[in-house]
Amino acid sequence: MKLNHWLHRLVRPLFPATCILCGAAGEGDKDICSECLADLPWIGHCCQLCALPLQQEGICGACLQQPPAFDRCISPLLYQGPVPGLITGLKFHHRLANARLLAWLMLQRLQQEEDAPELILPIPLHPQRLRERGYNQSLEIARPLAQQLCIGLSLHHCARSRATSAQSELPKKQRQKNLRNAFVLQKSLPAGHIALLDDVVTTGSTVNELARLLKKSGVERVDVWAVARTP
């Protein structure tokens, strides 16, 4: 930690922060300028369970009809404007610097929370997809978050056991079937409160399937941390 801090202080004056979105000088040591930061589509009122944007605080109709397996989803941003570009740039174009910024944006929302989980579990990729991509984008976002919050990071407790079709290509009902039994626990989790970290939540099928597995294994509380939520 001390070495990283020393290197940070040494390198920053030589390579000052630059806004990833517009190329202007970054705000402090962040890779985003104050104007672009203010223009991001921050979520205001939302469902207290799934973070779906609402006109006022409450629980959305879908969650009232069928509550999710997870206890709560926390998401700072709508999947609109420049946010899809930041996420797809990280996910498909090896722009790993985006992960640091996305983690910091997530942190701004998490600072409002009082109950911290004992462990962060990034949504795992199937080994085949991990080999193709070379990295797990959720893990890249989770690393700086775990460091900043001093929370443990789960790397080997859970795995994706089936190479499922891409969720973005499927309608909601098929997404749920596509993920059935897609995850497996490799060893018991040493925590009663876990946060699942994903880049974006759309229908919630992925995080819901994994949360169901964790609850069956004895985990008492499962939160979902997603950088972005589709409206």
Tags for this entry?
231 residues, alpha/beta, Rossmann fold, 8 strands
Give a written overview of the molecule.
It is a single chain. The chain has 231 residues and is an alpha/beta fold. The chain has one domain: 3-Layer(aba) Sandwich (Rossmann fold). It has nine helices and eight strands. Helix 4 (83-92) crosses helix 5 and helix 5 crosses helix 7 (137-149). The relative contact order is 0.16.
Q: Topology, pairings included?
A:
Blueprint: H1 2-11, H2 34-39, H3 61-65, E1 72-74, E2 77-78, H4 83-92, H5 97-110, E3 119-122, H6 127-133, H7 137-149, E4 152-153, E5 158-160, H8 172-178, E6 183-185, E7 193-201, H9 205-216, E8 221-229
Parallel strand pairs: 1-8, 2-8, 3-4, 3-7, 7-8
Antiparallel strand pairs: 5-6
Helix pairs in contact: 4-5, 5-7
Provide a compact summary of the structure:
With 231 residues, the chain is α/β, with parallel strands linked by helices. Helices cover 36% and strands 15% of the residues. It has helices at 2-11, 34-39, 61-65, 83-92, 97-110, 127-133, 137-149, 172-178, 205-216; strands at residues 72-74, 77-78, 119-122, 152-153, 158-160, 183-185, 193-201, 221-229.
How many helical elements?
A: 9
One letter per element, helices H and strands E, the order comes to HHHEEHHEHHEEHEEHE
DSSP strand content = 15-25%
Number of beta-strand segments: 8
Query: Which class best fits the helix and strand makeup?
Result: alpha/beta
Number of domains: 1
What fold name goes in the CATH topology slot? Rossmann fold
Question: What is the residue-mean pLDDT, rounded to a whole number?
Answer: 89
**Largest beta-sheet details:** 6 strands, parallel
Distance between the termini: 38 Å
Radius of gyration: 18 Å
Give start-end ranges of low-pLDDT stretches: none
Helix content: 25-40%
CATH architecture: 3-Layer(aba) Sandwich
Q: Give the CATH class.
A: Alpha Beta
Shape: globular
